[in-house]
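Quick one:
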Amino acid sequence: MGIYPWVIAPKRPLCQGRLILFVAFLNLLILFPFFLAAQSNPIVFVTQVPKADDFANIVSTFGNHRGTMYAAPRGGDLWIRYVDGSLKNLTETAGFGEAGRQGENAIAVRDPSVHWSGEKVLFSMVVGAPEQFKYNDYRFQLYEVTGLRKDETPVITKVPRQPAQYNNVMGTYAPDDTILFVSDRPVGGATHLYPQLDEYESTPTNTGLWKLTPSTGALEHLDHSPSGDFHPIVDSFGRVLVTRWDHLQQDQQADDGAFGAYNFQSERVNAPIVGGRAEVFPEPRSEERRISRNISLHTFNRFMP
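Output:
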């Protein structure tokens, strides 16, 4: 928030230093009520090591679910800010993460979501970093932290019976205490289809919205989204809101054959290759696939609630 100098329009010129002080003073007057407003509840947040680029990593719009070293640099933590302004590093206090050089106990954290009771927080965490010249597979998993009060020691536990071999992120509590989350678990658990690739850049993406009952392990795929779902929340009426990435168009990777795309007969494990690039969407996306001037091009690439 700021006051622009050209809005002030003084009748006579002010020197630059005085003008800057004048604008700063006006900003303080405007922001002063916010400084006085008391924080009524603790705030839970995460820190993240800065990521310089923005493609298919934790700070990206899509393809942001993976726990690899490239996608999720280690070194962040889960924090709580109390109403008196004091801070506590919850993950560090609970024995997770490393200071300085990031090794086998290194972590990255994301997506904190507070339980309806205010007594626990759901979040995703990936643990571990490889030694030099080695590669390990890492997955974001769902965790809960309790003991949030200022005089308590936080305890972090892994959510039981979640899909262990896949990335589970963006979790939130449903009113019945089940957990809604986004995962890259393939449809029906078909491991030969992992990872699912989005319909835009053929980049690994999540498979949509899932629901887990931790006490029984019941797992339900609420929405199979070919290019992914993002950031589910529950509104005051109990409705689940989620952002869905839709490509209701022909596949851009198959426009001119440069990427060597081809079709299988089905999604079975041993399904034969039938060849060709036939599409379920009849309208062409680009000039390369327009077969008649009477056909209009059609594109639909949208993030929509």
